[in-house]
Structure formats: C-alpha cells, structure tokens
Amino acid sequence: xxxxxxxxxxxxxxxxxxxxxxxxxxxxxxxxxxxxxxxxxxxxxxxxxxxxxxxxxxxxxxxxxxxxxxxxxxxxxxxxxxxxxxxxxxxxxxxxxxxxxxxxxxxxxxxxxxxxxxxxxxxxxxxxxxxxxxxxxxxxxxxxxxxxxxxxxxxxxxxxxxxxxxxxxxxxxxxxxxxxxxxxxxxxxxxxxxxxxxxxxxxxxxxxxxxxxxxxxxxxxxxxxxxxxxxxxxxxxxxxxxxxxxxxxxxxxxxxxxxxxxxxxxxxxxxxxxxxxxxxxxxxxxxxxxxxxx
Length: 294
Ligand SMILES: [Zn+2]
Description:
This protein is an alpha/beta fold.
C-alpha cells in the first residue's frame, strides 16, 4: 500500500539523464523523507544539479498540488523550508520581507505600465509585494491551479489564469517571475518553450530556486531543499544558466542567500553570521537569477 502511494506520486521510470542539462547521471544519490513520501535524487556529474530518481507521474503530481494544503502538511519535515509552515498565515510577514529583499537583491525594476506574470503564484503574496513596490505597474497575473479563494486575487487587483491556459496562450508579456516554483516543475521543456514564446524580446524572467552547491554536498539529506515528492530538480547555477541559454535567455544578474541554518537549531548571533557570509560570498543555498530574452 505504502509502496503503491510512492509509485503513484513519483512514477515507475528510473531517471537516467539530468533534468537540467540532459547528461547521464552519476551513481551518487541522496534519499530523504519518511514513508510514504521517501524520495531519492541523483547527482549530475556534468553540471552538479540533482534530479529526482523516478520520473514523476504528472497527473498524480497535479492532484497533489491541487490539494496543496493537505499534502503539504502531510509531507512536512522539520525545516524552515517546510511549505506547510512557509505558506501559513503566521509566516506571511516573513515571506513578504523575503520577497522585498529578493526583489532588491536581483535588481528587478518594476516599471510603470509593465505587465508581470507570476507563474506558480499560489496565494498571490509575491504579486501583492510587487504591487506595493510599484503601484503603477501594468497588468499583474497570477498563474496557478484554480483554488477556492482565487477570487481574492481579483479583489487585490490581480488577474488569474489557470496554468494550462497560460502555457497554451500566445500573447506577449514583459516580465515573468518564478518564485520557489522551478524546482517543482514536471515538464521543464514545456515551460521553457512557453517562456521563450511569450516573453518579449528584451523582456525578463526572474527566478528564485534552490542552488545545488556545497550545501548539498556537505549536508546530504539534511539540506532542506531535498524536500520529498515536491522538489523534482535542484539546479546548480551552471546547469540552469546553460539550460536557459538554449531557450534564448541571457543571465544578466545572479545572487544567492541563506546558509541552511534553521533558526530552531542555530542560535543568534551565529545564524545571522552564517547567513550573511553565505550572501556576501555568493555561497547561498537559494539562488536568484535575472534573465533577459534575446
Ligand atoms: Zn546536469
């Protein structure tokens, strides 16, 4: 029964090539999580990214995310990256502060009249922060699975578009943001093809995603981005830059932050020291990249 549940989320087919760069994977694996959510990732020797060990069953993953809150709580782990905690009401202020910092760190200029699409917008808090930063932006669109409270987005001044409709759409946009979402995407080539078609020449794509780097090597399963079921790929910087280049995007700014030092375990002032060193040295556990469409 338990084995069936895992298989239904992660599929039957063993992953043999890197989901980021397409090269053959190594023998190095990391396994994290408890049954029935135990998940294995495999290292790419060519670009340093990690790919989930079994090709995900997209229909089951879609069901998982459409019932987001329930499954996120069930798949909970004891880290600050636990999405059940991150997306709770008591964490909203923390998220808003993080979003403002990241927007600043990556040089996202929210110009008057420019349209912005937030892909994987979930509850729309990132768009709220963008609008608060630049009240005269153009259209702001949340793209995600329809949820009960999707109407709340309209009240807050955002449009809503279901994921599949946006992926199939044609109209051009100025800015697309993917905040904490790239690592969850089952069909990366499909998304990248859509981005290359729908982002204007000179338009921008901004990404915040885990960065496979020394943290993964040293911490192994304790690296908080080895998040069972949900994280399908964990890109190195080199891997993701090469991947986007193939679809017509040039990286114009990169940054990283976070020392994977949970506040519940690492006391201050050491946590602040570790996090500051990670950011100053560009050795962070989470990366920010600003791409421009050529
Ligand atoms: Zn690779």
